[in-house]
Amino acid sequence: MSVQKREWPAVLALTPVMLLVLAPFFWLIVSSLKSEVEIGQADPLSLPANLMWHNYQDAWRIGGFGELIGNSFLNLAGVVALTLLTCTPAGYALSKIRFPGREWLFYAFILGLTIPVQAIVIPLYEVLTALGLVNSLSGIVLAQVSNGIPFGIFLMRSFFTNVPDELVEAAKVDGATHVQILTKVFLPISTPAVQALVIISALSTWNDFFLPLVVLISPEVQTLPLGLVRFAGTYSSEYRLVFSGTVITFLPIIILYILTQRRFTEGLTQGAIKG
């Protein structure tokens, strides 16, 4: 795609910002391919004399990333699915169904956006303990879904609010129920918002470190970000493992974002911003 003449000032202004953002990633990837001697003695900004690809193999084996990445994908799939199943109908109900206390209920969900998860982690842990869900993937899925519901409802409600009410009335005249209206009328036209919600849920779930650290205790149920903690003991001085393990952790979600960036932007633009 060619850059138009009037867009060049913006491109030139944003280029230093882009370089500033990408510099840490470049340094991390370069460092992950260095030997331990180069990391400790050479210039931190220098390129490796030889590309040490086996650093990734060592990090994968020592960190047990094979099992961790499987847990992360299961966790991500559960969170994304439950978030869609809860936020989509809730967003529809809060935008198109009139019932007493609708606005107050929406404001209560919005209030959840202002409360950091660190402030509710103790009661959340007590609830999961009472339900027998601590140290299980089911527990962390429910914890992360509950943490993401306020934004999910806000996004879907904002999108559905912009859908003309006449569509609902016309469907009701034809005898459609609210479930049928949602599944057959609203969902087909809400693809951008649904895609944005999926991407946001996936990004936040994959990168989440705090909630898994609190809920998941046994190594066999931990997710990928927690694998980096395994290098904090015996292998804390082997920075090549820390760097390569970090790259392994964020690379899948970076690839996902690159592949879906346009749909992510479209979803936010047509949903939350218009709302």
What does this structure look like?
With 275 residues, the protein is mainly alpha-helical. It has a single domain, classed as MetI-like fold, CATH 1.10.3720. It has helices spanning 8-32, 36-41, 54-63, 65-96, 102-111, 121-130, 137-161, 165-173, 178-189, 191-207, 210-215, 224-227, 239-273. It starts with 7 loop residues before the first helix and ends with a helix.
How would a crystallographer describe the biggest sheet? none
Principal-axis shape equals globular
Strand-residue proportion: under 5%
CATH class: Mainly Alpha
Q: Please tell me how large the radius of gyration is.
A: 23 Å
Q: Tell me, rounded to a whole number, the average pLDDT.
A: 86
Helices and strands, with pairings:
Blueprint: H1 8-32, H2 36-41, H3 54-63, H4 65-96, H5 102-111, H6 121-130, H7 137-161, H8 165-173, H9 178-189, H10 191-207, H11 210-215, H12 224-227, H13 239-273
Helix pairs in contact: 1-13, 3-13, 4-7, 4-10, 5-7, 7-10, 7-13, 10-13
In short:
With 275 residues, the protein is mainly α. The chain has helices spanning 8-32, 36-41, 54-63, 65-96, 102-111, 121-130, 137-161, 165-173, 178-189, 191-207, 210-215, 224-227, 239-273.
